[in-house]
Amino acid sequence: MDLPLVWFAIVGLMFVAYFVLDGFDFGVGLSLPILGRTDGERRRIINAIGPVWDLNETWVIVAGAALFAAFPEWYATMFSGFFHALVVLLLGLIVRAVSFEFRHQRDSARWRAGWDACIVAGSAIPAVIWGVAFANLAQGVPMEPHQGGALVTGGLLALLSPYALLGGATTLVLFLAHGAVFLSLKTDGELKASAHRLAGRALLGALALAALFLGWTVVQHPSPLVVVLAVLAALTLAGAWLANRAERDGRAFALTAATVALAVGTLLATLLVREGGPFVMPASNPVGDFVGLTVANASSSPYTLEVMTWAAVFSLPVIAAYQIWTYWVFRKRITAAHVEAAH
Question: Is the bond preceding 4 in cis, omega lying within 30 degrees of 0?
């Protein structure tokens, strides 16, 4: 068994789970100033993700730990090369988490408005940065060999290419659509109707951006695997718009989740099909024999990967089962009556 490739797939699935789950959290936060016309509506919007937002972030923690253990060279190169962007991302996540806890601690409209603005910013910043980061992984980044590993050489501005910025804009709008569909599934009354209308507009915007971004990706990596995943992502996104238009909320949410998963899968697939790969972090400017970090040269020892595999066999099903149980417990819609009773 090719354990480095297996662990590339496992880490990839962890990031897919994170983007699908925390993606609608980001979208709900982004929708707050659009849908939350009254304090009661804003409380319902926040309460829709209140029981699950921190649980959803479990997957990025697990993915980061797995990345560190399975691919230490990838972890070190990416976290040093993307350092400034990842610090901003982390600050955004921290601000968002603090805002959820603090906004209800004082009965002041100005106090709540300030924390609501932090929720929006703490949702928008990660949504954009994650798109930019994964677009850079797909496109390749300027790197050079360094002490047996690699060093990103371009600086922050080198990561802000037109392709990467389009990736960030695509994830921003796609997450907004994903979150709006989730709210139409979890709320009722006028708030549900408003979320439904917002989802329709956001899905159309996401369709336009995704067509450009995925089309650009296919042009750069015209592999059958990349083409199939990109086409499936486009089809599921179009299906989500049709399901939302027909007010099939559950189906629309499943299709937006599938779109996020397939879009991330498309970017990860580009790492597998590049010549000289499979890669974890390709160089955009190959130097001699150095073409970037591959699955083979960036992975830990076979013994480490074997131990991690046994640990994953027992731990990952427990994490997934606990998350499924949590969603089942908090499956009901958030109504105005529930929020008023809890106030």
Answer: no
Q: What is each CA distance from 162 to 89, 141, 167, 313, in whole angstroms? A: 20, 13, 9, 40
Phi, psi angles (nearest 5°) of residue 151: -135, 125
What is the rounded distance in angstroms from the CA atom of residue 15 to the CA atom of residue 21? 10
d(CA 309, CA 321): 18
**Tokens in use for 86?**
């990842």
The verdict on pTM exceeding 0.90 is yes
Instruction: Give the Cβ contact number of residue 129 at 10 Å.
Output: 21
Q: For 296-307, what is each residue's pLDDT tens digit? A: 888 999 999 999
Considering just the CA atoms, what is the radius of gyration of the chain in Å? 20
d(CA 202, CA 180): 8
Pairwise CA distance, residues 255 & 245, whole Å: 13
Q: Where are the beta strands (DSSP E) in 134-264?
A: 143-146, 149-152
Q: Which residues of the chain have pLDDT under 70?
A: 1, 148, 337-343
- DSSP assignment of 131-196: HHHHHHHHH-B-EEEETTEEEE-S-TGGG--HHHHHHHHHHHHHHHHHHHHHHHHHB-HHHHHHHH
Left if phi > 0, otherwise alpha if psi is -120 to 50, otherwise beta: which for 267?
A: alpha
User: In the chain, count of helices (H) and strands (E)?
Assistant: 13, 4
What's the longest Cα–Cα distance across the chain? 67
Around 301, how many Cα atoms within 13 Å sit in the side-chain half-sphere?
Answer: 3
